Amino acid sequence: MASNKNIEPPSINHQWPIPYGKQNITEEDIQSVVEALRSDYLTQGPRSKEFEDAFAKYVGAEFAVAVSNGTAALHLTCLALDVKEGDKVITTPITFAASANCVQYCGGEVVFADIDPDNYLLDINHVRALLDASPKGTYKGIIPVDFAGRAVDMEAFRDLANEFDLWIIEDSCHSPGGFFCDTSGNKQYCGNGKFSDLAIFSFHPVKHIAAGEGGMITTNDKALYKKLLMLRTHGITKNVNDFQNSIDIAIGDQPTTNQEYPAWYMEMQELGYNYRLTDFQAALGLSQLSRANEGLEKRRAIAERYFNAFEHKSFVKSQSGIVAGHAYHLYVIEVEDRLGLYNHLREHKIFVQIHYIPIHLMPYYRQLGWSLGDCPNAESYYNGCLSLPMFPTLSEEDQEYVIGALEDYYR
Ligand SMILES: *Cc1c(COP(=O)(O)O)cnc(C)c1O
Questions:
Q1: Is residue 3 one of the residues assigned to a domain?
Q2: Domain count, the chain
Q3: Burial class of 56 by CB neighbour count within 10 A (0 to 12, 13 to 18, 19+)
């Protein structure tokens, strides 16, 4: 085991090990959950709506739908866009499996396009090549992912999607508060609905905003918004204006002169699910959301320290770097001898992580025909990538310890 005076673990107030990501629960968070528990609502209630409104405002979208987790959000977006048997949808292999699985849930077929090795995001040129190689209409949509918190250039993807008549679901799980600058120089926030049909977020504890479990869908499309509300709750509507059955059927076979739908009446119009968020989760999400910008600033400061530490180090071949609008869910470096470094860091109680094992190499997708060599950039990225500790409460002292342990390994 390598050891060095410089990398003695910081002794004060230290909690072992140092993870790659971590939630931060404050007294205010706890208070707002307690308040929710003392209220009349356990499952979806007023706080869910409040959370939706606040979140929509935060990302600059018109509508938001809170759901039980990010995967449910992806499933519902695919259902709302009517993904069905045989529909082909393009995404990146460097993301969490759920970004791809949602297409499969609906009987569609996910197609992986390679990443750009410079920014680790879905490469629009590879997407275009796929689209050009098939008759128009072969593909139905694209799911770009703001991987690690770096915003996809959604303007460019929207142009491409329009050309081929495709929809876009932006997977923004890593990037609440992140943005890219459009061709007019305006900041475009991830999930603001200007370029994507629908965008999704997750409130899993490792993400920026923690709700235990939770997810959000944002959109500027009112028809899709209404459809999502129904799909979230069994495909049921209680809105009189949307009823399809006649008043006769609603009332039942009884003598009546009533010309209105009875108050109990509701309709299940589509095959929906129960993907609701509970109100105490929404309370936690709301409280966390109020500190989201603070957390983002801390993440950006941490990224800057990593960048400065590794800028001239030959053992770091590539890194997330300093990018305007990056939300830094992850700080990724690419190194030689990744396994050796990983083990060395674990010995020093630094629990780094790998994001991600390319999805097309997962046995489920290999059994569908995908194999090594299909996405060479993603595969070569996987050979050297490592996600360093990145969370708002990571102290400068702990970060120095992490940097020291890395330098020690390559010394
Ligand atoms: C976390 C995550 C999801 C899934 O979210 P859950 O809330 O865990 O279901 C989907 N896509 C990406 C990119 C994620 O990081």
A1: no
A2: 3
A3: buried
Ligand 1 nearest-atom number relative to CA 329: 15
107 and 162 inside one domain: yes
Residue-wise over 360-391: b if at least 16 C-beta within 10 A, else e? Answer: bbbeebeeeebeeebbebbbebbebbbbbbbb
What is the block-wise mean pLDDT of the chain (411 residues), using blocks of 10 residues? 51 74 97 97 96 98 98 98 97 98 98 98 98 96 98 98 98 98 98 98 98 98 98 97 95 83 96 98 98 98 98 97 98 98 97 98 98 98 98 96 97 92
Which pLDDT does position 7 carry in this prediction?
56
Q: What is the CATH number of the domain that holds 328?
A: 3.90.1150.10
- Note whether 297 and 196 are same-domain residues: no
Domain of 392?
Answer: 18-22+292-410
Residues with CB under 6 A from ligand 1: 69-71, 95-96, 98-99, 145, 171, 173-174, 202, 204, 215
Q: Tell me: do 341 and 221 sit in the same domain.
A: no
Same domain, 200 and 245: no
Q: Ligand 1 centre and the CA of 173: distance in Å? A: 6
- Is residue 12, in this structure, part of any structural domain at all? no
pLDDT for position 9: 60
This prediction's pTM: 0.95
Question: Is position 191 within any domain?
Answer: yes
